[in-house]
Model the fold of this input.
Amino acid sequence: MASAPSDSAPSNRGPVPVAAFTAHKILVAGGFGSGKTTLVGAISEVRPLRTEETLTTASVGLDDLSGVDGKTTTTVALDFGRITLTPRIVLYLFGMPGQERFSFMWDELAYGALGAVILADVRRLGDCFASVNYFEKQRLPFIIAINCFDDAPSYDPEEVRQALDIDQGVPVVLCDARDLASVKQVLISLVEAISVSRSRAMTPGR
Amino acid sequence: MPPDDKWRRRGSGPVVRPYAVTGGRTAPADGEVLDLIAVVVATGRSPAADDPVRLNPEHRRLLGLCDQQITVADLAADTALPLGVVRVLLADLTQLGAITVVRQRPANQRTGNDVLQEILNGLRAL
Done:
């Protein structure tokens, strides 16, 4: 097959290979303890991804790395999952830490993502605000999934919508992050919402 | 499938130690920063004998995992190396011509509607 020309590919290294599969990214956001790891784990193997706040090169000397203390770095372990939908389509789910202090990595995680599931714990709804604001600002499609714990009172999705001040067009669904069928439906709802938002964007005047 | 234990760093300690394998470099020297789901693959070309960038064991370990097309995230998880370290090492390997990035679609282009539909069908079939 002919190689794909690309002005950003290494120019003197020979033909660029044809992609054997395409990788797509969906984010799973929500507060601490909202069930992100559980949700990812319900539908795929959960793999840990170690990442850290970038050290400035000034603080990392070639001679004495022991001089860098823990205060200048933040180590974060992210969870991600991989779902092979077809031999050519692989979906990656990345757990996005919701706390503001990890916001430095949100742009990197969100880059090129299809959309996001924001897991809401009704006992701590305020934990969602940062994620909601972020995705709205980035114009990244998202849905709210209310994680139903055994001991949490059941909530009307519309009450949660109002509490989070979410647009009418954004799906707010119930979810059991432990249950494969429920998590499947959450992802389906997100991808459907992405399709709908695109067709709306393409029909002005609606 | 349980993770392959031989790839785990035992007692890896503070995060600063993995940067020893990059000689203290915390960012790739040039070129774009590889996205988490950027895909790379080995070219099959060995580095020139007089190339200034030498392959250390972590370079070789990564290279060994690139026989098949693989994402940056999977490489980081397989090697248990921090993402930043993986990016620096992959940049070295790219510079040497030992690996290449597999272009999927221009970064500013969204996933096509037909692919979205395939994703939907794939999810429903799970």
